[in-house]
Structures are given as structure tokens and as C-alpha cells.
Amino acid sequence: MSRELMGEGSTELAEVRRRYAEFLRTSREAIENPYYAEEAVRFEVRDGDLLVAPADLRVRSSACGVLLSSERARAQVEVCGVDEVQAKRLVEHMDGEHDAAAIRREGADAFEKLRERAFGVVLFAPLAVAELERRVSACEIVRYPGSPYEVVRSYWANMGDVAERLQSLDDHVRDARMLREFTRGLHVVALAGGGGQSLYRPRSPISRRGGVVPGELLEEAPVLEERDGEVRFVSGPRVGANPIGGAVYQELLAESLAGNDGDDGGLHWGRVVVARAASDDASAAWFCPPRPMTEAHWDALGRELLGATAALSGARRDEGVRLLARFHRHFVRLHPFQAGNQSVVMSVVNHVLRRHLGAGIPHLVLDHLALGLPGRAYERVFSLALDGWLLPGGSARDRTLELVARKRATYRLLDELSVAPSIEAGRELAKANPSVARCALLEL
User: Fold this and answer.
1) pTM to 2 decimals?
2) Among residues 41, 40, 75, which one has the least CA distance to residue 58?
3) With contact defined as beta carbons under 8 Å apart, do 36 and 150 qualify?
4) Which domains does the chain have, with CATH numbers?
């Protein structure tokens, strides 16, 4: 695929879109949590991968097959339908010199069972992971860091292609049209890869209905009407905006952001409404993006992005972070594409952060908060996200381990807040763990 976005009507773009539509139609629909909260292996084994088993891996018979365990990997897993002799023969070939295709030839059925249950747990493809990590850190393309084997491989590869394209960002923000077209190109790459062959299905519900088109702007406007004392969605785009984290967390978030409730004025950047469509069971909070998208919207995004990079280049960190937060919030609220908006905009944000502050950050739930918070409040949340999650320097392994530790501590705090009997009890929990509270985007 060409370095620049193929123009509308081009044969190249049409073929990518045709292939992608077929992929959405025929690929297995994901039923996972759209926030990828589960610690599940999603990384795909490919034939050329050199597989490795830990040196201390033990293979012994179990009631239904074999039990594989490793102290080094801090894990064990049972694989049914494979006997001890088969398993040991295959594991012996997982020495970093034999690829997956060669190992499969030693026993295809047993290999597939081991791959399905043990890969990413006690069997690994470290060179494949290292190559992807070299291009872009897994910690910077997910909501919350975990094992690299939790990342969908096509998505990780595409984010590496996006990161490569972003090296020319400075050449594409001089005017609204250039930024818009460059962003559309990033969206094509995010969904289909730099060569148009690495197809990825976003976790947005719209992808299940085949409504995602690489690089196509979502121009349709939300249409609402009042009927029987309720606001009803008739047609058009909407994004779920119900408060997350539970009542106590929401109260603490409001308390943390007290005094930052002013908006940044100017253009209309969408609104939250309480409404329901005919297919909904009840009314809920939904965000309606601004339509039509105008040159003024893209001009504003360009000015904010240029201002952020200029401020950070000039060591004016606070100003740069504030402008970068505005850019992120406005892009999320503009919602230019059916799906994949957060992946595109956080790639841009993290490109700027890596260049000027040494590292990017996980996506967290920043996009969700950008829909519901006024401008200054969101700027404060974005700053807290950097305080809690920006971790420059160190090896990829050490950085991942530290960020995973912060994620687990954050999850524990959020779990405790979800069952706290009162706002007072929740406040004490947050105050007792200020560094963890900042990772949860709270500062009391």
C-alpha cells in the first residue's frame, strides 16, 4: 500500500475495503469484553515463529492428558488429549531453533492442543514478541498493560505500521485538509496494516454489523426525536457514555476534579443525551458526536497538536500536556470513524509523548472520560494519567513488569471502591494509597 492515503475511488483503496468487508463478514465474532479486561491469550502463533519452552518446564501425566508447569513462568496448565511421550517430544523441539511449522510436523493434533492451552502461558515465541515490541511497546497500545501474549497480533503489527507512518506527522498538520487525509490514512493502516493484508476487527459493536470501512469518515449526523416524554434515537452515530467504575468512584472523581469544571469554549464538540433507540431496553447516557464535521474542527485539532509539540519542544511541559489533552478530547468527541478512533488518536498522542517525554502511556479509559468531562476537568485527568503511567527509561521487560504491577494495584483499588459502603470509606481507601489513586485518575 502506498505511503500516502489512496484517494477516494482509487483501485487500491477499494480493494482494501472489499477485502476488509469480507473479513468482517466471515471472521469469528469476538465475544470478549470490549475493554480487553480479561487476562487471556490472544496472540496468534504463525508457522515461522521460533517457539521456546522454559528450561525448567516439567511435563508429567495428568488425569486427562499432561500437566505442564514452570517455576520460571510462574504457571502451570493441563492439556487434555495429549500423552506424556507426545508432549515431551514436541517440547524438546521448542528450543528456539525449530519453527512452529516444523514442530507441527512432529504431531499436528498434539501440537494444536498444546498451542491452544499452553501457548503464552508456559510456551512462548519471544523473538516474534521482541520484534513487535521494537516497533511499538505493547504497553502503549492497550488500555491496561498485561502479558504481551494478551495482545491481538494483527492489531500489534498494525500499530507498529501506524507508529512508522507517524514519523512524518510534522509534514501533515499544516492545514485541516492535510491532517484529515493523513488521519484517514492512519485509520486504514490501523485496520488493515501497512500492506493492506493484516486485518483487525475492532471491539466496537458496530464491527459485528459490518459497518466499519477503513479510512471512511463517519459523516452521518445523529437524529433524535421526543416521543411519549422520552428522547429516542432515530438514526445516526452514538457512543455509550454511562458513568463507569461505580457510584463511589464517580463521586471521588467529581471530588478530585472540583474547580476544573469550565469548558474550553469555541466550537461545538458534541453532547451527552439520555435517550434510547427502539432496540434498547431502557434509556441510557449516550454521546452524540458533532455533525457536520467541518474544516474548523480539523483546524482546531491541528492547532492544538502543533501547539502541544511546540510547547513540549520548548520545555513548557504543563502547556504542552494541556494542549495535548485538548487534542485528544476533541478528536475522541469528533468521532470521525465508525470504530478505531481511540487507537488512532492515542497513537498520535503517544508519538508526541515518546518524542518529547521519553515514553507513551496505556490507553486506560481516557476516551470514555473525554466524552463526559468538560475541557478543564479532562485536562486534569489527562495530567493524572501521565503522573501515574508515564514511565520512560529501562528495559521493555522491566517497564512492562512495573506497569503491570500498577495495573493490578489499580484494579484492586477499583474493586475495593466498588464495594465501599460509603463515599467516606472510599475516600479513606484512596487517600491511603495516593500513588495507586493517581493511577485510577484520582487525586484527593
Assistant:
1) 0.94
2) 75
3) yes
4) 11-40+134-209 (no CATH), 50-124 (3.90.930)
